[in-house]
Amino acid sequence: MSYSTLLGFFGGVGLFVGAILLTTEYYMSFIDTPSFLMVIGGTLASTFIGFEPRYVAKAIRKGLSIIFSHKETSLTDEVGRIIRWGYIVQKNGLQGLESDAEGIIGEDKILTFGVDLVITGYTGDEVREILTKTIQTTFKRAKDKSIILNYMGGTAPAFGMIGTLVGLIIMLQAMGSDPSSIGPAMAVALVTTLYGVIFARLIFIPAASRVVQRDDLLRFRSYLIAEGLALLAERKSPRYIQDRMNSFLDPLEHYSIDRDMTQTAE
Question: 176 vs 8, which has greater pLDDT?
Fold first, then answer.
């Protein structure tokens, strides 16, 4: 569970509700089912018209997934794993790598695919080229989800405005018969715009931003792994692999073979 996401969401809702309760006694005026249905229904209808339904469903599932914690492996640990495999390849060849990597099969798609390429006997350049293409196409497919969520974030306020216009038309039609209803009717009309802005700025757009951030982190990790596996295919020394992969990382996160060996000895 991503507590930061839940804290941000409920904190935003809490501030909104708290401000209403502190400033007015007519808080029930902010609850309007037709306005809610118009914003959500209109946003979904427009999105399903503009995008293929299966991609919309995937985007919604991806947006909901930000509630859950993102399993993120330390990049330093990734470097350490590739270096350990470097020692295994030096000692036991590709057969040793295949045996040691059995535990990751199916759990990590990019790592599993990359190890299969190395074991198959591709050269380092071939491994690097194939994995780079895989990462690029994977990221391009994943990008569709954030595009759809951003679209929903831009569409929700528009349908909020449409709902307001509908409310104004109804209000003006009733003006001649009951002038006292203008105030309450105007309030209900504006609620729809309020709903549209809230859904856009508190749900859809933040969800899209979180999805993009997670995809960027995953893409960077994938490029790091691709480089390490290409070096394995080239039969580079573990120390060379260390220095090459450390060039991807912040200096404070660099992996050190010497430090690891010292800790192991202790």
Answer: 8
